């Protein structure tokens, strides 16, 4: 599948193929048009062609810039959503550490399982464009149930459980937003507009009458390459969790590292407490 190839190769390779393809087709089209349209005929209409080319070029440039900015903003929002989700997971881990036993152990285990599932199962699936599945919801539901079993006999415990529950609900929302962001991309109808608009802008360069065919080739190639670069930029940011340019799970890696450090510390504390005093 074309999408799998685009996001399965390095960005420079994808960009090179797109630029060579667009520029190559443009120059072939120029060679064909110069044989069909006589130079004198095109030269007579240079002024009118220039006016229309500038007008259509500006309109299409605005449209292309809007699409590029939208793709960039969607990419940034996906990164922010993943960062918020990871931060909430870390907060829940720290909140769980203050809960009474045996609930504390159960809560810590659930949030650790969640982070591990996100890193080892969901992120690789999103990188391939596959569904993330429902495995990630299970530890959150268990965390919710375990949190409901905490005894709230004093105001401090009530406040602690309420704050943890608020963060858990926020984590639900952040997870859902990340899943939706992984599925979101530019509509195919928009891509048709981009392709047809680029073809029109490049085609208008064929109508200029220039004495030097080499200069005409250079001008057409430069226009085609500029449009191809913007298209490459849009493609790179279209799927925020796919390709070489993607949202990384660094936030979740940091949370897992924090958990590992906390686990080592807890083990040392338990070992110190069990050792005889000297």
Explain the overall architecture.
The chain has 278 residues and is an all-alpha fold. It has one domain (2-265). Helices cover 81% and strands 0% of the residues. It contains ten helices and no strands. The longest helix has 52 residues, at 46-97. The chain is elongated. Residues 264-278 have low confidence and may be disordered.
Keywords:
278 residues, mainly alpha, 0% strand, 10 helices, single chain, disordered C terminus
What percent of residues are in strands?
A: under 5%
The shape, in one word, is elongated
Please bin the fraction of helical residues.
over 70%
Based on secondary structure, the structural category is mainly alpha
Instruction: Please state the average pLDDT score.
Output: 86
Which stretches of 5+ consecutive residues score pLDDT under 50?
Answer: 264-278
Tally of structural domains: 1
Report a brief summary of the structure:
The protein is mainly α. The chain has ten helices and no strands.
Would you spell out the secondary-structure blueprint of this structure?
Layout: H1 2-6, H2 11-36, H3 39-44, H4 46-97, H5 103-128, H6 137-148, H7 155-183, H8 188-205, H9 213-238, H10 250-274
Helix pairs in contact: 2-9, 4-5, 4-7, 4-8, 4-9, 4-10, 5-6, 5-10, 6-7, 8-9
């Amino acid at each position: 599948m074309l999408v799998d190839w685009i996001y399965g190769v390095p960005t420079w390779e994808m960009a090179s193929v797109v630029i060579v393809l667009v520029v190559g087709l443009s120059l072939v089209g120029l060679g064909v048009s110069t044989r069909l349209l006589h130079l004198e005929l095109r030269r007579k209409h240079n002024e009118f062609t220039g006016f229309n080319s500038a007008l259509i070029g500006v309109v299409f440039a605005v449209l292309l810039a809007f699409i590029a900015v939208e793709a960039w903003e969607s990419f940034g929002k996906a990164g922010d959503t993943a960062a918020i989700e990871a931060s909430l997971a870390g907060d829940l881990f720290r909140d769980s550490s203050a809960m009474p036993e045996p609930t504390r152990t159960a809560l810590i285990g659930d949030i650790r399982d969640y982070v591990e599932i996100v890193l080892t199962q969901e992120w690789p699936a999103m990188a391939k464009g596959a569904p993330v599945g429902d495995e990630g919801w299970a530890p959150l539901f268990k965390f919710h149930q375990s949190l409901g079993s905490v005894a709230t006999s004093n105001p401090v415990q009530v406040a602690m459980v309420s704050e943890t529950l608020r963060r858990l609900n926020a984590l639900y929302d952040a997870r859902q937003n990340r899943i939706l962001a992984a599925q979101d991309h530019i509509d195919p109808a928009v891509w048709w507009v981009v392709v047809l608009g680029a073809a029109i802008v490049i085609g208008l360069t064929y109508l200029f009458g220039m004495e030097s065919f080499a200069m005409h080739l250079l001008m057409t190639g430069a226009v085609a390459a500029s449009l191809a670069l913007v298209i490459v930029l849009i493609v790179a940011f279209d799927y925020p969790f796919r390709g070489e340019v993607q949202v990384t799970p660094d936030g979740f890696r940091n949370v897992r590292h924090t958990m590992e450090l906390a686990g080592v510390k807890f083990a040392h504390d338990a070992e110190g407490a069990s050792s005889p005093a000297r």
